Amino acid sequence: MDTTGSLSFGAAEPDAAAFAQLRADCGWGLLPLDVARQAIAGGLTNITCHDGDRLVGCGRVIGDGAVYFYLQDIILRPAYQGRGIGSEIVRRLLVETRRMISSEGAIGLLSVAGKERFYEQFGFVRRPTDAFGAGMSMHVKK
Length: 142
Ligand SMILES: CC(C)(COP(=O)(O)OP(=O)(O)OC[C@H]1O[C@@H](n2cnc3c(N)ncnc32)[C@H](O)[C@@H]1OP(=O)(O)O)[C@@H](O)C(=O)NCCC(=O)NCCS
Description:
Bound molecules: coenzyme A
Order of helices and strands: EEHHEEEHEH
Largest sheet: 6 strands, mixed
Number of domains: 1
Number of helices: 4
């Protein structure tokens, strides 16, 4: 973990309750604690940002650990947005993800509407392109 002012970045798994609360406070709905724990355990790598003891931002990478990787749950509390913290989280996740790719791989994400430009600065390409179709997803609610 390293510290800038009262902020500290780390690569350990976030506490499941704090992670679920952070998502909920940012308007993403409250995951049950056991589901949050399962989601975190199923990921490949994490970056957290704490202000003191409080989780204020995080990002995760999920995937097969060899070829295909996806950024997930890139979130910052609103009061901490616009200060370069989100960029630092993504930058650190990409360093770790590139380390896991031995020769060739792909890193994807599903951007929230309006956040595409944030990701373009890291080299992500907005789809569809001439070569690639639109990304697709399915939301499942039981
Ligand atoms: C998206 C998010 C992670 C960005 O983190 P952040 O710390 O606020 O962004 P940064 O301060 O690192 O911004 C870095 C650069 O991206 C730009 N940027 C940030 N958000 C942007 C947006 N929504 N649209 C376009 N550009 C954006 C900034 O202007 C800045 O550019 P600059 O360096 O030229 O000034 C954060 O705003 C957030 O958590 N939002 C709510 C949750 C969310 O929507 N997450 C994305 C899920 S796909």
